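#lab-general

N.A. 3:47 PM
ok so I finally got the sequence cleaned up, no stray characters, all 260 residues accounted for. can someone with queue access submit it? mine expired

B.Y. 3:52 PM
send it over

N.A. 3:53 PM
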Amino acid sequence: MDLGLQGKVAIVGGASMGIGYGIARTLAAEGGRIVITARRELGLLRAAEQLRAETGAEVVPIAADCRQADDCARVVEATLAGLGGVDILINNDGAPPLGDLMSFDDPAWARAVEQNLMYVVRMARAVIPHMIAQRRGGAVLNIAAISAIQPIAGFGLSVATWGGVIGYAKTLSLEVAKHDINVNTICPGYIETTRLEKVFAADGADPTLMRAKLEAEVPMGRIGTVDDIAAMAALLVSPRGRYTTGAAIAIDGGLLRGVR
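B.Y. 4:20 PM
back already:
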């Protein structure tokens, strides 16, 4: 299936590894022109080289800290200057620390808000006016986690701030739909990433036993892959997925137990 992404300009956050890299690779393979961002420049440059080698696509790395307002603005400005526009925005980063809610002080909460919520707010605020001016529609996709809609003890900083992202995205979707711009949030379940490795190592548990425990929780009986997430992301940000907007979509092998 041709997703209609040939020549589309996409900004993909947290793309030096994991889910961000997987999404960037999928969009590049579909013919997109990709700007990738991450905090660590060396890893980002290596990711850009690998993406070019794998897909032959135009890939522009911009080292930036998504928690900093100036860096968010700089990424968008550089994309517009270098690639002439922006069609797709993927807001993706790591996540705040794990731990009991009572253990986090005000600075920890402030960092979590900057990383998860304000990052999304700032990037959307910078990008959407240009999408509207281009008059060809666009897509904004946020990457959260299943814990945002099915809370998990110990993940409170993420649950609270990604909950805000979901509410923000739903409201934004209503306001920009008339411009043919869709706004969605993906909530991955257990996915093979460095974040999951931290879960495996929680409380000094045996990683093998922890993996078996998590797999047993998933009706499909396996941990998800980055490609599972990237495939849905590519559809949602493509013209073929444009009619889906305001959604918070679990990609979790059936892990979510709620009926929505």
